[in-house]
Design goal:
- There is one protein chain.
- With 1162 residues, the chain is of the alpha+beta class.
- Among the domains are: 51-160, Immunoglobulins (Immunoglobulin-like); 164-277, Immunoglobulin-like (Sandwich), CATH 2.60.40.10; 291-369, Sandwich (Immunoglobulin-like); 374-480, Immunoglobulins (Immunoglobulin-like); 482-580, Sandwich (Immunoglobulin-like); 588-740, Immunoglobulin-like (Sandwich); 855-992, no CATH class.
- The longest helix is centred in the C-terminal third of the chain and has 48 residues, at 1098-1145.
- The chain is flat, with a radius of gyration of 43 Å.
- InterPro entries: Ig-like_fold.
- This is Cadherin domain-containing protein.
- The chain crosses the membrane at residues 758-782, 794-817, 863-886, 907-931, 951-974, 1009-1028, 1034-1054, 1075-1096, 1102-1131.
- Keywords: Membrane, Transmembrane, Transmembrane helix.
Length: 1162
């Protein structure tokens, strides 16, 4: 019925409306860049009221005149207008109104989208459409307003888009005398309409002015040379040796696509070109497209179709590609990003070659994402009344890249008022990590608001941050008297339980009673005992294994909560569980029976059978003692222990939290018993212990590093068929602890290290490549590295430098010694160098990469280079012997050239470049592994028990002798030629030019010995580092004296050539730069002296560490800048020399730059 008196209603159908609500969640992090996400939740509901707009669908002309005041549009007029893409107009004048008195005001608006779409405008009753309006449906609302009545009418405008090609039309080229086919790309119509194709040849042209093309009429009429198949939509070009040359032209076509509704595409040009001559390959359609993918995803694709105009075979020449890209010939790529290094933007670049000098370059842009994990629902803030027990289950977690980035881990902390996030929760909050469950029971003193930050981290380190708030409030006064108390157990429940590993026990709960006879819930929080405990039907089942043995107890919490409708009350009970190891005083028979699961039959290797008594009596079993080595202690609190065992997979199952005693030593005193958990130990012979320090931020903040002492306190025996292996008691291990940092800071350090490795590869490889084309460029690289090594070598002084200094110097030292082959990952597979007694001589040496006392391990890549150099020298020797017996002129010429250019100079260059690594490795081996030859014959045999140890010892002795002899031999060579007056002769420079490379000629007799003096300086410094490793202050003072002496020598002698010339880009005096480097060394040593126990304040030490890092950065940057300028100057000098030669050849007069000759009396 109508709400207006004396007015009837017209019945219409109900309509359905949809409502939408938008809720925000916290943002997530994509590679340390914060973003924010918004989720839209859709809710659908029905409304039963009648919609006035639907009356526009019904004509009421028959009764409207009798109903004054009614207003409606004529629904007989269609409300849908279909137009083809392009320029058009729609008139709304056919719309008419009924029963409008007076005539209403008409307005027009857009309903969907609400904003005016580009390409559509409304001018009065006229809708104008341009070619900016693309395919889609658009609603225009016409509103009629004649107070108090109003009506609206929706008009739908449907734009029909023209069909188009799925790929671009590219120029198709074919050589005269070849046959080729070109298929048009697939045609797509957005609305799925049928379509027609119109193809017209409009011109035949050429870019060669003197060339005459076939006429347009001839080309149109000839269907033999260029034919089009309308069924297959394919062009066929057929030419041969008899085809007139006038057909070698560009044939330009115009293609128009029209659908069945009349929508016509723009004119699409296509060129078919017949050519003479050689052209590179080209893309038939579109070039390679951008690839967007996610970590863990695999994508396989081929390069787009390509064609060679001359019919040559096309091959792919790879230039660059990311490590996760694999090329399967000829043109198939597989992308499989898997690690953090694979996240970001990458490029594949290459050339398509036809076997000649011409090629088609290409690049493929690849973007790899790793979305952070997030909750599937927004977190709901909680409100808890005091003494009430509530639980909140976190929503499930969703990760786009799952399961590849599984597992997802929690990190929860309590946000305090100063925004500091504390890992310790308020006392009334419990979080069951295994179940993702919060439990709250705040008392009156806990009233207030609490915020928790919940971080979800995937296995690759990407994370999202979410916040949960809990509000603890006081209950309303009238409700507190409605609940007399919580439910309770009628009889006492067991509070403590001691159970032996391998056994099982069940605890049944007593009867429960509530004083108000309310219904109740019994919930159990298993906590850390969840791995060996289950709860079902008011009973606990506890079944621990050997890995659960621990000196600390496990806590299970039992909570009884009533369901009182006024206020909730609960009561908590705790059960302490202690898991003990099996008794070690079992008889042999009992121990054999208990370990029967680990007996292995010698013949069949069958696990699980028991040996018979006769077998036990017949087999004489060997007692084997396992060996342990503390491999590493990380800056994130992980200790890695290597277990040398015949049955490591079995012994790992018995190692638990009671196997080791771990202590923290600082300044020679035990300051803490360290708790630990076992992270990994069942899958390899490396045992990973997560150390739980009380105050990790205070570890190793003084001059000396703190130490970790690990002792075995539990004996374990594994009985096998032919031997008994024993994990002994009383094995002691120790290692220094680096300053502790967070996981995120550790990831950044790893990123810096990998970036340094990549930079090393790039710098060395690019200089080697340049040296092929510009001989001598490599000398600038070696000069650069030697200058920087003067500073980085000081990191061997045994002082704990805060910050990133140790990491940066290690990266630079690896570059200086060209330690790029990562021999630590594979050399042990060739030579057995593994020993549980082998370790670095002190922390500074280990951080610098010298983590062993064995020569081969410390040499790293240098050992491989020595082997290659020895093989090269042996090859020259064999070639010389060959030429004695067989006189082959070409072989003799090659031998003479190789000997002249590479024999001595290459050897000298290698000795100078690798002298520090060779001297350090050999000196450490002789004076710390072989104890300076002060050892008995039995000790010597023990030190050289394995082949690897023997080789290391012998090579160490030989290299130490060579390191001492080499500078003396170099000095003898210089002295000999200096006395003979041939020091500057061509022959001397060809054979020994490296000795005096870059030095000033004839200024002072001692200048030619400068590189020899440098070697002696390094020898003295390295001896101080190795032999006085415990006296760091003495090391610093001696190095300061040496640095000052060398500064004075450089100022007085100025031994280096002045590279200034009129062709130079920037003139640099090498002597001044050497003085600058020595000043940097001096300042570095002075600040290092402040890092001794003189400075005890931690903040002051951190500031000095930053200064040291800045000094290293200044040194590296200035030396790289200098090397770049010198390289540019050298290129300009060579260019000038080449130009002079050309001018002299043309007999042109040339005025050289004036030369200033500097004379100095001595």
């Amino acid at each position: 019925m109508s709400n207006t008196p004396q007015q009837s209603c017209y019945q219409i159908a109900s309509t359905i409306f949809q409502t939408y609500s938008i809720s925000s969640t916290s943002g997530f992090v994509q590679v340390s860049v914060y973003t924010y996400s918004t989720y839209i939740t859709l809710y659908q509901s029905s409304s039963t009221f009648k919609d006035l707009q639907t009356t526009s669908l019904t004509s009421i002309q028959s009764w409207c005149p009798n109903k004054a005041g009614a207003l409606s549009f004529d629904a007989s007029v269609s409300n849908t207008f279909k137009v083809n893409y392009g320029y058009s107009e729609i008139s709304l004048t056919p719309l008419s109104l009924f029963c409008g008195s007076p005539f209403p005001v008409i307005t027009y608006s857009f309903y969907n989208p609400s904003a005016v779409p580009s390409g559509m405008s409304i001018i009065g009753p006229l809708i104008k459409i341009t070619d900016s309006l693309h395919h889609g449906k658009y609603i225009v609302r016409v509103n009629a307003n004649a107070p108090p009545q109003s009506a609206s009418y929706d008009i739908q405008v449907v734009v029909n888009m023209y069909p188009s090609f799925s790929q671009s039309l590219s120029k198709f080229v074919v050589q005269l005398d070849r046959t080729a086919t070109y298929s048009l790309p697939q045609i797509v119509d957005p609305e799925g309409h049928t379509f027609t194709i119109s193809i017209q040849l409009i011109s035949v042209t050429t870019q060669i002015p003197t060339h005459t093309c076939v006429s347009l009429a001839t080309a149109i009429g000839d269907t033999q040379i260029i034919a089009y198949d309308s069924t297959l939509r394919k062009f066929t070009i057929t030419t041969n040796a008899m085809t007139p040359i006038t057909w070698a032209c560009d044939f330009k076509y115009e293609i128009v696509l029209t659908d069945s509704q009349g929508a016509t595409s723009p004119i699409l040009p296509l060129t078919l070109s017949i050519i003479q001559g050689h052209l590179p390959p080209y893309w038939v359609y579109d070039p390679p497209k951008t690839v967007i993918m996610h970590i863990g995803e695999n994508i396989n694709f081929n390069l787009p179709e390509s064609e060679d105009p001359n019919g040559d075979t096309i091959s792919l020449i790879q230039i660059t590609k990311p490590s996760f890209a694999t090329l399967t010939p000829p043109f198939n790529y597989t992308l499989s990003p898997q690690t953090n290094e694979h996240i970001g933007f990458f490029q594949i670049t290459g050339n398509l070659s036809d076997g000649t000098s011409q090629f088609l370059p290409f690049e493929i842009n690849i973007t790899v994402f790793n979305f952070a994990p997030n909750f599937t629902k927004a977190l709901k803030n909680q409100t808890q009344e005091i003494n009430e027990f509530i639980e909140y289950q976190l929503p499930t977690i969703s990760d786009y890249e799952s399961p590849y980035t599984d597992p997802i881990s929690y990190s929860i902390c309590f946000v305090q008022e100063n925004q500091y996030c504390d890992q310790n929760y308020p006392g009334f909050v419990t979080f069951v990590k295994e179940q993702g469950l919060f439990q709250f029971k705040g008392v009156e003193s806990d009233v207030g608001n609490y915020t928790f930050r919940i971080t979800l981290v995937d296995s690759l380190g990407n994370f999202s941050v979410n916040y949960l708030m809990i509000n603890v409030t006081k209950p309303k006064s009238y409700r507190t008297v409605q609940n007399q108390g919580p439910p309770e157990f009628q009889s006492p429940i067991q509070a403590k339980l001691t159970i032996e590993e391998g056994k099982s026990e069940q605890i049944k709960f007593p009867q429960i009673k509530d004083p108000d006879n309310d219904l109740y819930d019994c919930s159990v929080n298993l906590g850390s005992a969840v791995t060996f405990s289950t709860y079902k039907n008011l009973a606990l089942t506890i079944s621990p294994l050997s890995s659960h043995v621990s000196s600390s107890s496990y806590t299970i919490q039992i909570i009884l909560t009533d369901k009182n409708k006024y206020t909730l009350k609960n009561k908590k009970y705790q059960l302490k569980i202690t898991v003990t190891a099996k008794q070690v005083n079992q008889t042999t028979t009992e121990r054999t029976q208990s370990n029967s699961n680990y007996y292995i039959d010698d013949n069949q290797m069958v696990v699980g059978s028991k040996p018979s008594s006769s077998q036990n009596q017949a087999i004489q079993k060997e007692n084997v003692t396992m060996r342990l080595k503390l491999v590493d202690i990380t800056n994130t609190g992980k200790a890695k222990i290597k277990v040398y065992s015949r049955s490591s997979s079995k012994i790992m199952q018995f190692i638990s939290n009671t196997t080791f005693r771990i202590q923290l030593s600082s300044g020679g005193e035990i300051v803490e018993n360290v708790l630990y958990t076992i992270e990994n130990g069942n899958y390899s012979n490396i045992l990973v212990l997560q150390l739980n320090f009380r105050n990790p931020q205070t570890i190793s903040i003084a001059q000396d590093y703190d130490k970790l002492l690990i002792s075995t306190i539990r004996k374990i025996s594994i009985v096998e068929s032919s031997f008994i292996e024993i994990f002994p008691i009383g094995v002691n291990m120790e290692g220094f602890i680096p300053p502790q940092i967070s996981e995120s800071a550790a990831q950044k350090q790893e990123l810096i290290k990998k970036s340094g490795d990549y930079a090393s590869y790039a710098l060395v490889s690019s200089n080697l490549l340049l040296n092929i084309f510009l001989s001598g460029i490599l000398a600038y690289l070696f000069g650069l590295l030697n200058d920087i090594s003067q500073l980085t070598m000081l990191s061997l002084i045994n002082i704990n430098i805060p910050g990133q200094v140790s990491l940066i110097t290690t990266i630079i030292m690896n570059l200086i010694y060209m330690d790029l082959l990562q021999t630590d990952l594979w050399i042990n597979n060739i030579i057995d160098l593994d020993s549980e007694d082998d370790d670095a001589i002190c922390p500074s040496f280990k951080l610098a990469g010298y983590s062993s006392k064995l020569t081969i391990k410390n040499l790293g890549s240098t050992f491989v280079f020595i082997f290659i150099l020895a093989a090269y020298q042996m090859g020259l020797l064999l070639t010389k012997i060959f030429t004695i017996f067989f006189t082959i002129e070409k072989v003799m010429n090659v031998f003479q050239k190789a000997k002249a250019s590479l024999y001595w100079n290459m050897l000298i260059r290698f000795i100078i470049q690798q002298y520090q690594a060779i001297m350090i490795s050999s000196l450490v081996c002789v004076f710390h592994n072989l104890n300076g030859f002060h050892l008995s014959y039995g000790e010597y045999l023990e030190k050289t028990a394995t082949v690897g140890q023997k080789i290391s010892a012998y090579i160490g002795i030989a290299l130490l002798a060579g390191s001492l002899i080499a500078p003396i031999a170099m000095a003898w060579v210089i002295n000999k030629h200096q006395r003979e007056g041939t020091l500057m002769s061509t022959r001397f420079k060809e054979n020994y030019g490296t000795l005096v490379d870059g030095l000033k000629e004839g200024a002072h007799w001692i200048i030619p010995y400068w590189n020899v003096i440098i070697l002696f300086r390094w020898a003295i410094q390295i001896s101080i580092f190795v032999l006085l490793k415990e006296a760091s202050a003495v090391q610093i003072i001696i190095n300061l004296v040496i640095s000052q002496m060398f500064t004075i020598l450089v100022v007085y002698l100025r031994p280096f050539q002045n590279q200034s010339s009129c062709e130079a880009w920037v003139n640099i005096d090498e002597n001044n730069f050497k003085i600058f480097n020595e000043i940097i060394v001096t300042y570095y040593l002075i600040f290092m002296l402040l890092l001794t126990d003189i400075a005890s304040d931690n903040e002051q030490r951190l500031f000095i560490g930053m200064v040291e890092l800045a000094i290293i950065g200044l040194c590296v940057f200035s030396n790289i800048l200098k090397a770049g300028i010198v390289g540019i100057n050298e290129l300009k000098r060579r260019k000038a020399v080449k130009r002079r030669k050309e001018l002299q050849q043309h007999k042109l007069r040339f005025h050289p730059c004036p030369i200033l000759i500097y004379h100095k009396s001595i």
